[in-house]
Every structure is written in structure tokens, then in C-alpha cells.
Specification:
The protein contains 13 helices and nine strands. The protein has helices spanning about 10-20, 35-50, 75-90, 105-115, 135-145, 165-175, 190-200, 215-220, 250-265, 270-290, 295-305, 325-335, 345-355; strands at about 20-25, 55, 95-100, 120-125, 150-155, 180-185, 210, 225-230, 230-245.
Length: about 350
């Protein structure tokens, strides 16, 4: 049965617009490539303990193959994460975001499933829908937004996304029920399209902007974007991030976002913040493997979590998902060169507790 969209609480709306660190949840598997429920729950506990403002489940980092009938893990991974959030009894705002994929009917069904588990938003992927027109994508969004608040998603073409027009994003922003947009085109021109489109819409104040641009995380968070709309100079910030990169070293990512929020309204920024931004981008390159067209991005996340003991192995549902040549060496290099980005001590102190 299709559910009716439940609006965000005022507290969660305020937190979303202040800026949340939302890691994209990986999938923990045994060597038999079956769900490792113990470690799946441990990952959620890790993100909760790290101070993350939310989690994104059933997204790219969770592996799209969970939807395959022979795998059948979409419902379990959504349920397990929701259970752990409920058990945590948090005294702060926390947003559960469910990845939503496929054509309109599949997307509506996935939105209904997520809503039934209490997810507050759906990250609506446009991936794999090249045959649909922009108007058909907008209608699909409206249908999903009837069920669950929508977190828009501009996905880079190299991993199945497509170039979408400025007019598309302006119309997208006008849809009642769209609450945020994750921008991950890995392209400054296309990122600016989304920001300007939202500012020119009538719902600019109702939509929060989030970075998914792994190559520009800190720069995105520190930039005030200014455009002239109807003769008036207006401004909007990218307030937080929904990132696979933040699935590792998460407590440090939360710390980084909190520090950015403290200084991002200053008229001038110290150059060391831009240096830090370059370091974050370099570490992301090691994990997400752009040198090999992102082939090793999911195993790269797994490798960092394996080194910390949170995962037992690198197994993916697709056996072809493997680390690229030299990727382990690159991960070890950035771990060595940027120890201030790594949270090994935090994980070591709590690992046994999370694995109980």
C-alpha cells in the first residue's frame, strides 16, 4: 500500500538546513557473499557514535545489486539500519535516507518500503534512466514525493548518471516534497546549474544543498554561491554532505563539518582550509579510484573499514568489484600522509562494543 508523505519535523528541517554529515552506508558481507548482520549493525553503530547527522542506506555504497531478486537484501539492510537508529535513542536530530532507484513504479514501491521503516527521506537516483525525458523524470519525482520527502541527486555520467539542464533543476526545485539536492556531477559547471536553479525557484528557502562532489568537498562547504535573481543579489551555501567518502573516518568527517560551520560565515578564510580541502580530495582519490574510472570505489571503502576491523573482507555481491592495481598502496599512502583525517584510535576504542 502506498503511503502518504510525512513532512519533516521542524527540528529535523532546521538540522538539515544547518548542515548534516550523512555517510553512505556500505554493505557488510561474509566470504560467502551473504549479509554479515553483526558487522552491518556495527557499521550503523559506528556512524551513530561518530556523531553523524544521518545515514544513507541502499545507495551506491550499499551496492545496487541488493535489489536483485536472487540477492533480496533491500528490505533487510533498510530494516537493520532503522532498528539500530531506534535502539540508539538519540537526543539529537538524525535523518535516515533511503536510496531509491529504477523506473517510476519501482521507485514508488521503494519509497513506500522506506517510509514504512520510518525513513525521513529518499535519495532519488536518476541513474540508468537515459530513455526517459526530463519531463518524465520530473513526473517520476512527483510520484515519489507523494510518498516520501525527496533528496534530489545529480549523479555523474561516468557512473550511470546523465547531464540534466538548468530548466530541469529549476522545475525539480518547484516540486512540493523536494527537501534537498545532493550535487555529485563532479563538474563545477553542472554544480553551479543546480545552485542557480534552486535560487531562481520559488522554493529556494525550503531546499537544502548538499555536496556529493568527492573532488571538492571542503571547497563546496566553504563557498558562498552568489547570483543575481530578479535584479537582487542572492546567496546560498552547500550546508552539508551525503558522501560515500564519509563512510570511512567518519568521526573526523563530522569534526571537519562542525569546524567548517563555525568559520564559513567569516569574510575571509585561512589558506590552511583550502590546503585541507586538497588533502581530503587526495585521500578521496585513493579510496574512490578515479584513476581507473572509479572501478575500485566500493572495494576502496571496504579496504579502509577492513583495516580498522569494521569489515572482515572486501567481498561485494558482484565478484568483479575488486581493488584496482596499486589502490591499496595509495590508500596506505594517504593514511600515512594525512593522519589527521584518520580515526583509527576512535574505532579501536569502540570496536568490540559495536560488534557485540
Amino acid at each position: 500500500m502506498t503511503l502518504t508523505r510525512k513532512p519533516l519535523t521542524s527540528e529535523l528541517f532546521a538540522a538539515l538546513h544547518d548542515g548534516l554529515a550523512i555517510p553512505a552506508h556500505p554493505l557488510a558481507l561474509t566470504k560467502e557473499r551473504k549479509l554479515d548482520e553483526r558487522r552491518q549493525r556495527a557499521l550503523t553503530r559506528y556512524y551513530l557514535a561518530s556523531g553523524a547527522g544521518g545515514i544513507a542506506v541502499a545507495v551506491h555504497s550499499t551496492q545496487f545489486e541488493i535489489r536483485n531478486p536472487e540477492v533480496g537484501l533491500l528490505e533487510p539492510v533498510l530494516r537493520l539500519a532503522a532498528e539500530e537508529v531506534e535502539l540508539a535513542q538519540l537526543d539529537r536530530s538524525f535523518m535516515k535516507v533511503a536510496g531509491i532507484c529504477g523506473g517510476t513504479e519501482q521507485a514508488v514501491l521503494e519509497a513506500s518500503l522506506a517510509a514504512s521503516f520510518g525513513y525521513e527521506a529518499g535519495l532519488l537516483s536518476m541513474g540508468g534512466l537515459q530513455a526517459l525525458s526530463e519531463e518524465e523524470l520530473l513526473e517520476r519525482t512527483r510520484r515519489v514525493a507523494d510518498v516520501i520527502p525527496v533528496f534530489g541527486f545529480y549523479l555523474q555520467p561516468s557512473v550511470g548518471g546523465r547531464i540534466l539542464s538548468f530548466d530541469f533543476w529549476k522545475a525539480f526545485a518547484e516540486i512540493e516534497g523536494v527537501i534537498a539536492i545532493k550535487m555529485a556531477p563532479f563538474n563545477r559547471y553542472q554544480t553551479l546549474d543546480v545552485v542557480r536553479a534552486v535560487l531562481e525557484s520559488s522554493r529556494s528557502e525550503e531546499i537544502a544543498l548538499y555536496t556529493g562532489n568527492d573532488d571538492n568537498i571542503v571547497s563546496d562547504l566553504l563557498t558562498s554561491f552568489r547570483f543575481r535573481v530578479n535584479g537582487k543579489l542572492v546567496e546560498k551555501k552547500i550546508v552539508g554532505g551525503l558522501l560515500g567518502h564519509w563512510a570511512v573516518w567518519t568521526s573526523k568527517a563530522v569534526q571537519l563539518l562542525n569546524e567548517v560551520k563555525m568559520i564559513r560565515n567569516e569574510p575571509s578564510l585561512a589558506s590552511n582550509w583550502l590546503t585541507l580541502g586538497a588533502e581530503v580530495t587526495d585521500s578521496n582519490a585513493a579510496i574512490f579510484d578515479p584513476a581507473h574510472h572509479f572501478h575500485g570505489c566500493i572495494p576502496g571503502i571496504h579496504e579502509v573499514l577492513r583495516q580498522q576491523g569494521l569489515l572482515e573482507g572486501l567481498w561485494c555481491l558482484n565478484p568483479d568489484e575488486q581493488l584496482s592495481p596499486g589502490q591499496v598502496e595509495e590508500i596506505n599512502r594517504v593514511r600515512r600522509d594525512y593522519p589527521h583525517l584518520v580515526d583509527d584510535e576512535f574505532v579501536t576504542a569502540h570496536l568490540e562494543e559495536w560488534l557485540q
